[in-house]
Design goal:
The protein is globular, with a radius of gyration of 19 Å. Strand 4, helix 6 and strand 5 form a beta-alpha-beta unit. It is 45% helix and 10% strand. Helix 5 packs parallel to helix 6. The chain is of the alpha/beta class and 324 residues long. The chain contains 14 helices and 8 strands.
């Protein structure tokens, strides 16, 4: 079995339970109860599933929407408390667990301060941010200092979905399309494209943004982004064709999409250096995700990269050959 790293894997910190109620109430009671139990678990079943699936390390992040739901004055303290809690859990199993920071993205300076604290002082491997913060996106110049610090630290920014600030009219009266089925992917993918077409990756070419769920569908439209941007640039000036920012700056995980056809299409578009395995535990099934990647029609080198080494390089961890 190929050794694996996963890094869209979630936990719950004390005091954040109320933010999960909105989506937990949409599930059957037994399913939501099991989900809460797994979010609160850092050993036991979580580690057992990792062992059975050949997952050698998992990078944990606070389940959404986290501190971003709060006002700025509360978010700074809440993010710090969540990160301190996670650091305690990692310290008990440092050979298996790592962390992504929760950040108060309401204010770039506050986000920078917490990013520095968690990466430099606590050994976190990057951050996971749940999309916009009260309708604010991060492509504007006021966030340039944040991107500059992320680039300087050399850690990735995982852009995770969240509810839209205002649901698009076409799905406003169709609740099933507003969340994980469709709307979250549209929201996260559109945010990533704002960063791309807003020139963030030209100003900070070392920035790495991670998209889950097979890249929220974006890799499959790279050709069209180039074609239609050439036809309708609308005053936007990029140094590269839009497609060239994929793998260079936008990388993806397989989390929540266990489809061989989708995987091979994504690898075909981005190469094995741009696609990484993840589960989305506990929202998705670890055994199903492991079976999906182990049976995927990848050659040995590509499987090693997708399962482990591409993530290891991104996160600053030893490659398989170095760890042997």
């Amino acid at each position: 079995m190929t050794p694996k790293i996963t890094f869209e894997e979630h936990f719950m910190a004390p005091g954040f339970e109320k933010y999960s109620e909105a989506f937990l109430k949409l599930m059957p009671a037994d399913q939501s109860g099991q989900l809460v139990q797994r979010l609160n678990g850092f050993d036991g079943e979580r580690i057992e599933l990792m062992d059975r699936g050949g997952i050698v390390r998992t990078v944990l992040s606070l389940t959404g929407p986290g501190a971003q739901s709060e006002s700025l004055d509360r978010a700074v303290d809440s993010a710090r408390r969540a990160n301190d809690f996670l650091a305690e859990k990692i310290a008990a199993q440092p050979d298996r667990l790592s962390g992504f920071a929760s950040l108060p993205m309401h204010d770039p300076d506050a986000a920078i301060a917490e990013l520095q604290r968690t990466v430099r002082d606590m050994g976190f491997l990057g951050c996971l941010v749940n999309g916009h913060t009260h309708g604010t996106y991060y492509d504007g110049p006021e966030y340039d200092a944040f991107w500059a610090e992320l680039e300087r630290l050399g850690v990735p920014f995982y852009l995770h979905p969240i509810n839209a600030h205002a649901d698009p009219y076409v799905i406003r009266d169709v609740p099933v399309l507003q969340g994980a089925v469709w709307g979250w992917g549209v929201e996260a993918g559109s945010h990533a494209l704002r960063l791309l077409f807003g020139g963030v990756f030209d100003r900070f070419p070392g920035v790495k943004v991670v998209l889950g769920h097979m890249g929220e569908g974006l890799p499959f439209l790279r050709w069209r982004f180039d074609s239609r941007f050439r036809a309708y640039p609308q005053g936007v000036d990029l140094r590269l064709a839009p497609s060239e920012y994929f793998t260079r700056n936008i990388v993806i995980t397989t989390s929540g999409v266990c489809s061989h056809a989708s995987l091979m299409g994504a690898v075909g578009e981005m190469g094995a250096d741009g696609v990484m395995f993840s589960v989305d535990y506990p929202y998705e099934d670890t055994a199903a995700a492991v079976d999906f990647i182990e049976t995927a029609p990848l050659d040995d080198e590509a499987r090693r990269k997708v399962c482990h080494d591409t993530a290891a390089a991104l996160l600053g961890l030893p490659l398989l050959a170095e760890a042997a």
